[in-house]
Protein: Mitochondrial arginine transporter BAC2-like
Amino acid sequence: MVFQSYAILSRTFDRNIPASDPPSYKGVALGGTGAGAIQSLIISPVELVKIRLQLQSKTHQQNNQTTSLKGPIDVTRRIIKQEGWRGIYRGLTITVLRDSHSHGLYFWLYEYTKEQLQPGCRKNGQESFQTTLIAGGLAGAVSWISCYPLDVVKTRLQAQSNTKYSGIVDCFRRSVKEERHGVLWLGLGTTVGRAFIVYGAIFTAYETALRYLFNKGDNNHANAQSGKAL
Structure:
């Protein structure tokens, strides 16, 4: 869904550029930003349920609960019962903030880096395996660094089933006050290392799939990247 949204939006912001040419870097950044925002509508409740499942043992101890949550459906039902339908979208605002700007940077940096590593590849669609792996990995790592503090705050907001934090700013201020600024970067190294591998593999698989679907890098491949053929 992210790549499809990005392909459409990047072209929407670049209507004056011929379909045979790749979208501009501005179109890439804006398309990525829009795709990230759209993705948040689905990702936010999914991550909320995942976080509640991961923290269920601690939550049960705090609330003196003896029954365990059996799975995502059970978690979803309990959230709706205890917090209402709005509870499912707890943390949506900060998820949009995190994903919109990080995806804008993510797609822009990927396109920029692969063009620097292999000039002309955005036009002819002939980027090498090494180029996509490095560009995708670097884009994923940098985008996570840029949004990591937001992700920490988002996780804390979604983990609470009560009203410990009144909002994004309150969560940020209290976290820094109680645990200092370092709390916003806990686990960054592991996340960045994973992001480089995962996103490098994602873009490599994406570009490889496009080549097989659109005749191994002819002009149709360039059109596919720009959103015309998708």
The CA atoms of residues 136 and 208 lie 13 Å apart. The chain has a mean pLDDT of 87.
